[in-house]
Structure prediction request, 605 residues.
Amino acid sequence: MSRGLFIFIMEIRNIAIIAHVDHGKTTLTDAIMQQTGAVTDESISMDSNVLELERGITIYAKNASVLYKGTKINIVDTPGHSDFGSEVERVLRSIDSVILVVDAQEGPMPQTKYVLKKSLELGHKPIVVINKIDKHAANPDWAYEQVFQLFYDLGATDEQLDFAVIYSISKLGIAKRNLTDESNNITPLLDMILEKVSPAKQNDSAPLRFQPFNLGYDNFLGRLAIGRIYDGTIDLKKKYYLKKSNGETEEGKIRKIFIFKGSNREEVESAFSGDIVMIAGFPDINIGETICDDPETDPMPNITIDEPTITLDFVVNNSPFSGRDGKYVTSAQLGERLKKELEVNVGLKIDFTKNEFKVSGRGELHIEILIENLRREGYELQVSAPNVIIKEIDGIKNEPFEEVTVDVKDEFSGVVIEKLSKRKGIMTHMDKINDQTRMVFEIPTRGLLGFRGEFISDTKGDGIMCATVIGFKPFVGEIVKRSVGSMVSMASGKALGYSLFNLQPRGSLYIGPATEVYEGMVVGNTSKGLDMNVNPIKGKQLTNMRASGSDEAITLTPPRNLSVGIGLEIMSEDEYLEVTPNSVRLRKKYLTEIERKRQSRSLKS
Ligand SMILES: Nc1nc2c(ncn2[C@@H]2O[C@H](COP(=O)(O)OP(=O)(O)OP(=O)(O)O)[C@@H](O)[C@H]2O)c(=O)[nH]1
Ligand SMILES: [Mg+2]
Prediction:
């Protein structure tokens, strides 16, 4: 298959947009799409998934393409949150250059470092975009210096150090080469891409090599593979060979080919070298494997996927309220759905050998998003408290470690240092940035679990904290955390305002009046470290002789409503988080006090 004598061979540039979370990747991609006419509706964003829109973050890497001055630019918008970092790494393997977006006020952050390090290692020459120069406290020159230093520290070559810079206000679709330039559009960046990014190699007559860097799923087509055609062409009529990562070769056909056009996919009959495309037809294809048209072709080097760092159990909902609002409530249905998830969620691992499915992922957000997706689809389930994965390396117990960067007002630095040190964090860097203190710690993931909520309240909601997994290191021993106990309901029924009013001085409540509770459900926490059995449904004793003034109206503090994220963070080992489409409840694994006592006795003996 050839492009045909009369088909104009269009140059292709393949780029990924990478950055720390929230630095403006998607906004920048959206601006490029709008200004090149790739999308005509301004309300269309690359963040299109419901959870992405709700949270304002990118969860899934997405492909798009635009046409600019006769060149096709394939763009991959990547997620900035560190839990999805391995997705970015895979993308980086398959493109020709990266746009590194950096917030002009925050400067480089942990994920900037992670994605830049990976890019430099792969030999990319990034174009740096200093974004958000309109922010009140923006300091583009300082941000540039910091980025330069980071390149240097990461061992950039001279060529890489000589990176191109663009200053931008993505929100307004404005980019410029120099801060003093006048500009009202994004074209300076697009021109820079044409100037600096090498065109994708096009050698259609070579034997085919297609390698996926991402997977998708379609109810009719099954597994979809998104990847790059390194050499040759793909069309629907030929026989193909899949070179699996285990060394086997499978024969098969390609049923559909899609190219990216704007943010949509367009079905085509054939696709050519240099392009990024999506194909259907190989139901077992995995990331990093190679499709060829000649079984003798050498496969592309494989792409490794980062190992999970945390694990927890997913079990069927067996609480007294199970089946009240879910469509799918059996263990078999949950298992089926989780198997389907493995089709696309590459960083996830699941052990199905027991009735409690052991789910392992890259971090709390990775798991939280999965649970949120399940409940939205109508599933009910319970999950146990997340634990870190301990690995034995050369006979030594190892655990995952993270690098945490914290930006806080100076007055809060003391409390953060104290708490992170207790959790076995070691400060590696401290700096003053604007009127804030920036501190960097290395800390076991174990020490960070459950810390976020404390950090938010310790810094009065004002601090920024972000963490990136840096690998497995020797286990550092027991970590003592601030312990709060649970208030456990000893009765079933509707909670009454009167009894909640009496309970609220003892801790903070997760429920309000009229919430239905069951025996063993956790209705709040106690500021004292121990669990406490409480009766939230007890009404006021009626007496014949009411003292005047004893009937004063009660005022209840608004409860701390549980979300999946908060639940995962605060729950203890002997609890389950019960998640249904309409509710998130915390409960003891053993619902009655007698069962709990029996259990703790048997654990002790
Ligand atoms: N002031 C200002 N805000 C901006 C600019 N660009 C983006 N933002 C805002 O920054 C926030 C984050 O932007 P996104 O584009 O979603 O960031 P992102 O890098 O894609 O984030 P993740 O994909 O979640 O990592 C949004 O509220 C944007 O409106 C800018 O140039 N100036
Ligand atoms: Mg984004």
